[in-house]
């Protein structure tokens, strides 16, 4: 199960870019873009920023990570 949701394909298609074109713009192989779109690869911060700029969308709209569960407060008897 992926640790995050990736909406890269949606934004790439809105810019009318192929996987290969986007890969060339951000300096990676097409396979990397393919794996990102399937949420099989967790990008570095630099790659996420480069992709965000290339497709014109905020990082947090492209890569969605689940919120960590909140820890229960441990209180005393008071």
Description:
The radius of gyration is 16 Å and the shape is elongated. It has a two-stranded antiparallel ribbon with strand order 1-2. The longest helix is centred in the middle third of the chain and has 11 residues, at 45-55. The protein has a domain at 5-57: 434 Repressor (Amino-terminal Domain) (Orthogonal Bundle), CATH 1.10.260.40. The chain has helices at 8-14, 19-26, 30-37, 45-55, 59-62, and strands at 5-6, 63-64. The protein is mainly α. It contains five helices and two strands; from the N terminus they run βαααααβ.
CATH fold name of one domain, please?
Answer: 434 Repressor (Amino-terminal Domain)
Rg to the nearest angstrom? Answer: 16 Å
Q: Determine the CATH superfamily of one domain.
A: lambda repressor-like DNA-binding domains
Q: Name the helicity range.
A: 40-55%
Poorly predicted sequence stretches spanning 5 or more consecutive residues = none
Layout of secondary structure:
Elements: E1 5-6, H1 8-14, H2 19-26, H3 30-37, H4 45-55, H5 59-62, E2 63-64
Antiparallel strand pairs: 1-2
Helix pairs in contact: 2-3
Please describe the structure with a list of short key phrases separated by commas or semicolons.
78 residues, 49% helix, elongated
Overview in brief:
This protein is mainly alpha-helical and 78 residues long. The protein has a domain of 53 residues: 434 Repressor (Amino-terminal Domain), CATH 1.10.260.40.
